[in-house]
Sequence to fold (787 residues):
Amino acid sequence: MSFDDAYGALTDHDDDTRWAYGTGFADPLAGVPAAIPPGVDRAALAEYCLMLGDDALIMSHRLQQWVTLAPELEDEVAIANIALDLLGQARLLLTRAAEASADVAPAPAAASSAAAPAPVAASSAAGDAPVAASSAAGDASTGARGEDALAFGRGPAEFRNVQLVERADADFAHLVARLLAFATWRLAVLDRLRDTADPILAAVATKAVKELTYHREYAAHWVVRLGDGTDESHSRMQSAIDALWPLLAELDHEPSPLAPTTWRPEFNAILSQVLTAATVAEPAAAPAESSAAAPAESSAAAPAESSAADASLSTEAPDAVSAVDDAAEMSLPGATLPPTHRGGGGGGARAANFEISPLAESGRDGVHTPALAEILDEMQGLARSVPGGVW
Amino acid sequence: MLDFEDTIARDQRIEPRDPMPEAYRKTMIRQIAQHAHSEIIGMQPEGEWITRAPTLRRKAILLAKVQDEAGHGLYLYSAAETLGADRGDLTTRLIEGRQKYSSIFNYPTLTFADVGVIGWLVDGAAICNQVPLCRSSYGPYGRAMIRICKEESFHQRQGYELLMTMMRGTDVQREMVQDAVNRWWWPSLMMFGPPDGDSPNTAQSMAWKIKRHTNDELRQRFVDMSVPQAVSLGVTLPDPALRWNEERGHHDFGTPDWDELKRVISGDGPMNAARITRRRQAHEDGAWVRAAAAAHARKKAS
Amino acid sequence: MNHEWPLFEVFVRAKRGLNHVHVGSLRAADHTMALHHARDLYTRRNEGVSIWVVRSDDVVSSGPDDKEPFFAPSGDKAYRHPTYYAIPDSVPHI
Ligand SMILES: [Fe+2]
Ligand SMILES: [Fe+2]
Fold:
């Protein structure tokens, strides 16, 4: 009996640009000019890409820890998808950070403050040639060197992610609460970066907006289901929101001059709306801003990309969370506006505006909870334990 | 039942609402469920390395691969449900130890080279086993297998590519690869099941065209495929009896430790308890989440 | 124990100009969740594809003639759902 022609398909590899579903190795930035435009401050660009890249990398790590532990198999697939999207964003952003300025890369001699048997920069340099040879499908050798040096070569104090992404999740309610806040914030921010001056950052933001729209929707639906579901799930969801709330103040401390400043009303409006649908109470403390405070001009511009993913589905679910999506579209003021470049004094003024005092210490300044050191031990241990290793 | 036998004889597919002997239905449910369980439990050995992968590219590949396995499990549970099985019930059987999964996943993954070797040998053996199943007489199973085989080929390639890269690295890395090959070679051969003389169900499964080749035929094919791959990789397969037999046109090879296979299948493998415990924990920890979603859906519907 | 969530059948239009084709089933608490899961599982979120989800127990099937059945699935039982798989055209025919 002859074997199936499925064997033919197994050796027919011309059609794929990936090793497995979900990992695109075709260059997602193909056609985007890589040169940094003259007006852009390279150091500021590198620093901001690092911040946004670290947010995605650490949040992805927390999601990866849920693999094989999700409440249902379909959610296994969904959580892995979100983790993959964020990992992809992290890789592009860290690569850009390394390109924009060599200063963000860890110095070879002082790879980190964490336990490091060998400086990782040395191993990635040694591995340069084979890695480049084996990844002809897409990774530029500089890209692989840049992203890995940054991901595996820095200690906690050099990471610039917000503390929101570090926290371990006590249960699924904590995960979806954190994911809702993270995706809503990041979507609002990256939506406003789609026309930023650096073409690569703008392209990454444009790609990420579609992904984050999906992440926000996934999280919002789960917050509503758990909040409204059973007595047990309601109280777990309420505790998760209570635990989330103190982490949100940090989001207003955004030291980068490239960071958009107008995301907060959209963020607050969406959180309020989801929590209302979920019958979960907003904790009394910050953030104080309610949906009513969304700027009046905001209803005008709804970017098509934000809703593209939804539009590709043939049905509309007429439930509370669809209303959230509508509201989100109505309150995306940044779509047609140039990104706000704000001066040094802006942070304080804005914080006052939203009745949140800026944190004295933030992940953005390299101040982290002990959770980050634990994450990095896990993430970097192997890479650091094989001097000169190539993978 | 003439229809059923006639359909089989004409090499046509049996579809869900066709009349079929109860024994055929039960056999199919058991086989598909065990296969589905294997995909889901199979996420664990490699899943442990996602957060520890040494480059971001490897992390992305491994995460995508483990996600694929969840998808495979779902395709297969879906096929089993066309026969009247219920996924909740099948999951209960798995975590209560009443249904089996592939014994290969009861071995531990000790180093990152294991990720490569699992892709190369374990996914490779799975491909050998599964490509003929694309023509299984039960339609939904065969169609699920087509999707799965397509993805398994990516899995095998990423594993082999990782090993090639590591073999170009340091001595420590080459030792890691050889050590992983030493540990996984024999369990991979056992993935094809007991020898034909010891496989009482094979004849019926072949007659029903659920199975298209015997265990020993598939094992031989796998050995013949793997030997040249090992050579070009530069590793030694841990079998002193392994040599080319000109007369047969196949490789001769040693006898796997069938007692070990029996022990692992009956629950005595190094990781049996850990695998089931983790699956049960996910299922039990998720109960309140699933119940909440069901309750919310009921409220909305009313 | 039966699953907490009902079964949904999934139909995918892989690209414009093609019919929606049945690709399999999944478990979800409601239609919204079923659509999300279907996008993740059966399309890996490809842009431009269109998905239908239908509760399996809402599918009515003609079924083959159940003469002398050893196993006659009963149309009124949700868990014995009538399903005719087909591989969508986006999967290369193999
Ligand atoms: Fe698989
Ligand atoms: Fe696989």
Remarks:
- Chain A touches chain C through 30 residues (CB under 8 Å).
- The two ends of chain A are 40 Å apart (CA to CA).
- Residues 163 and 357 of chain A are 16 Å apart (CA to CA).
- Chain A has one domain: 41-120+130-385.
